[in-house]
């Protein structure tokens, strides 16, 4: 029996979520996924009740995510922008709760793509922690966990590694702040996959199981065995998911930097990837465990 809950990001098929995309919930479950991940960047287009009704109809779960922009950056120099960022994140939390979800995550701590002059000083960390503390306290009242997703150096100046995510979590110091890892970004920023996954595991709310080139898992350079070993040793049974892009809209192409087909179709990438990942789960969560010297029975 599967122990992990597998999600698929709606960006596999669309660059913009609205009620026109509700059929993707059915599509996700048809492909064998337990959850769908819905992006909240365009929060004004989100209909939580419509989403909730469709989820209940097909028996699917949901998590949500965002990537903050310069207009709602809680590390901005301007107080007005920081305040707008906190309110935006609270709206995301409220929508998350209303659709029946418990996890809201992503690049919640600063504007994605922002570049600064020089190394970030503690002021950026403190502004991010202050803003997210307000959001976390609001989210506690609604039963929502707020995640921090480290991403690569080309997309943020602030949180690139698991350890940096854990540092920010400690600074916020609220019980519903968690870590959201992504293998694609780890492949760029981490020294290995096992140790960061093991350190994050007690604090994980989500894990994007994205290949090094964002194609089908198992066809790139990510050490999937190390990730699944660490997750199984930590007895992690939460949400993991695929965030890959094939059917990329022109509006999203520059953001995702997908300039070649990564699979014949999104459905093939997702079905093949899910099959591969569930095979790893059966291996690492099943009758064997790996040591440095090889394989042994439990």
Indicate the radius of gyration in whole angstroms. 18 Å
Per CATH, the superfamily is Divalent-metal-dependent TIM barrel enzymes
Total E-strand runs: 10
Whole-number mean pLDDT: 92
What string, H for helix and E for strand, traces the elements in order?
A: EHEHEHEHEHEHHEHEHHEE
CATH class: Alpha Beta
Give the oligomeric state of the chains in this entry, treating copies of one chain as homo and distinct chains as hetero.
single chain
Helical proportion, percent range: 40-55%
Supply the helix-strand structural class.
alpha/beta
Strand proportion, as a percent range, falls in 15-25%
Q: Report on the biggest sheet.
A: 8 strands, parallel
Q: Count helical runs.
A: 10
Assign the CATH topology. Answer: TIM Barrel
Protein traits:
298 residues, alpha/beta, TIM Barrel, eight-stranded parallel beta sheet, 10 helices, 41% helix, 16% strand
């Amino acid at each position: 029996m599967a122990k992990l809950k597998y999600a698929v990001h709606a960006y596999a098929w669309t660059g913009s979520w609205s009620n026109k995309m509700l059929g993707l919930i059915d599509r996700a479950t048809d492909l064998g996924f337990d959850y769908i991940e819905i992006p909240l960047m365009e929060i004004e287009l989100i209909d939580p009740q419509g989403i909730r009704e469709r989820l209940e109809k097909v028996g699917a779960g949901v998590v949500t995510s965002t990537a903050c922009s310069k207009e709602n950056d809680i590390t901005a120099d301007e107080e007005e922008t920081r305040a707008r960022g906190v309110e935006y994140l609270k709206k995301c939390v409220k929508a998350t709760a209303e659709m029946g979800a418990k996890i809201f995550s992503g690049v919640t701590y600063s504007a994605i793509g922002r570049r600064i002059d020089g190394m970030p000083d503690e002021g950026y960390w403190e502004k991010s922690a202050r803003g997210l503390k307000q959001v976390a306290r609001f989210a506690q009242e609604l039963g929502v966990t707020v995640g921090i997703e480290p991403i690569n150096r080309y997309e943020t100046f602030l949180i690139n590694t698991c350890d940096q995510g854990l540092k920010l979590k400690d600074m916020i110091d609220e019980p519903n702040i968690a870590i959201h890892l992504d293998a694609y970004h780890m492949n760029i920023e981490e020294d290995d996959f096992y140790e960061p996954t093991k350190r994050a595991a007690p604090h994980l709310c989500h894990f994007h199981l994205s290949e090094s080139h964002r194609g089908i898992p198992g066809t790139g350079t990510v050490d999937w065995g190390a990730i699944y070993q660490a997750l199984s040793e930590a007895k992690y049974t939460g949400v993991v998911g695929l965030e890959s892009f094939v059917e990329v809209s022109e509006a999203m192409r520059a953001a995702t930097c997908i300039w070649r087909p990564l699979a014949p179709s999104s459905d093939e990438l997702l079905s093949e990837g899910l099959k591969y990942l569930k095979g790893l789960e059966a291996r690492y969560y099943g009758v064997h465990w790996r040591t440095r010297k090889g394989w042994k029975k439990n």
